[in-house]
Amino acid sequence: MTYQEIKNNKVINTYIKQADQSLAALGYTEHSFAHVGLVAEKAGYILETLGYPERTVELAKIAGYMHDIGNLVNRVDHSQSGAVMAFRLLDNLGFDPEEISVIVSAIGNHDEGTGVPVSPVAAALILADKSDVRRNRVRNQEEPAFDIHDRVNYSVTKSELKINEAHSLIKLKLTVDTRYGSVMDYFEIFMQRMLLCRKAAEKLGLQFKLMINEQQLI
């Protein structure tokens, strides 16, 4: 089964939609099709660029697309509940057990609280997920009501994740409008995520660099 078939699966899409609605009720930023689609494509880009087999790239995309369905259960431990949900869905769709293992372990390890880059697919998923910072993830457009997550995401006017030609480093380059959020705001909520990104990059044989407004910070 292909990534495109997973994207077109009505059951999986229902869970993604409902999980995002649960997060909306809690005041979280967007975690719906825009987010999971971007994460899937970025995870695929990372492994494809590094020369991984086509099917491994496809599994990374599938993991990226399904990684946040656990938010349907609860935001707490959503990576683990999402992994369990993904196991049942993929098993019912007839996936090979080895491929299920790769996808489920990646989903179960993508959150910075408990995650570890246990495989190349898990590492790619972590980097793709944690680099999705952008203005249009903010649901609430009333600036006086912004919390710190709204401020940080709204302040990012451009986000780019790229691997260099030598395949020695991966760089997350952000352009931040400091009228809405400071660099310190970013580090207050993202430091643990960036440290996990560094571990994920190392798993792939890369060095991780974070650039904000042309200044290297990690």
Mean pLDDT: 95
The biggest sheet amounts to: 4 strands, mixed
Structural class: alpha+beta
Total helices: the number is 9
- Percent in helix: 40-55%
Low-pLDDT stretches: none
* Percent in strands: 5-15%
Distance between the ends:
38 Å
Q: Name the overall outline.
A: globular
Number of beta-strand segments: 4
SSE order and pairing:
Layout: H1 3-7, H2 10-26, H3 33-49, H4 54-66, H5 78-92, H6 97-108, H7 120-130, H8 148-155, E1 156-163, E2 169-176, H9 183-203, E3 207-212, E4 215-216
Parallel strand pairs: 2-3
Antiparallel strand pairs: 1-2, 3-4
Descriptive tags:
single chain; 218 residues; alpha+beta; four-stranded mixed beta sheet; 9 helices; 4 strands; 55% helix; 11% strand
Structure explained in plain terms:
The protein is of the alpha+beta class and 218 residues long. The protein has nine helices and four strands, in the order ααααααααββαββ. The chain has helices spanning 3-7, 10-26, 33-49, 54-66, 78-92, 97-108, 120-130, 148-155, 183-203; strands at residues 156-163, 169-176, 207-212, 215-216. The protein has a four-stranded mixed sheet. Helix 3 crosses helix 7, helix 4 (54-66) crosses helix 6 and helix 8 crosses helix 9. It is globular, with a radius of gyration of 17 Å. It starts with a helix and ends with a strand.
